[in-house]
Every structure is written in C-alpha cells, then in structure tokens.
Amino acid sequence: MELPLFERAVLIIKKFETMHHPKHWPYIGYGHCVQPGEPYRRGVQLTEAQADALLRKDLRKFCALYSQYGKDSLLLS
Hints:
Layout: H1 5-17, E1 27-28, E2 32-33, H2 48-65, H3 73-76
Antiparallel strand pairs: 1-2
C-alpha cells in the first residue's frame, strides 16, 4: 500500500469496526461512543461522510493524546 499511515489506519478501522446503526446507541459511526454534551441524537444514522469525518477527528485526537510515543502514537490510537 502506498497510502500514508494515517489513511491506512482509517481503512483498517473501517473494515474491522464497521458502521454502527441506531440500535447500537451510544455507539455511532465507526466506534465513536457519544459523550455528554455532544450533538448526536439517539435513532439518527450518520451518513458515510459524517462517520468518516468523526473517525478522522477521533483518530487525530487520540494521536495527539499519545504523541509522546512518537511514531507509535498512531498504533496506540
């Protein structure tokens, strides 16, 4: 694969996490657990674009959280 590591991670997560449906509440998109104060509503299905954007946002957040581990931050995220 010639994709950057971040893009490969996104594809792998999408393959193994799969898209959550409203019956999986409080999980939405690709494994995001809805936190208090977030604008998501029970019973509403995210579009593929919304789920992809949320996955990337979550992955960036966790990469930043583990940034002290250098190149392994993506693996830990």
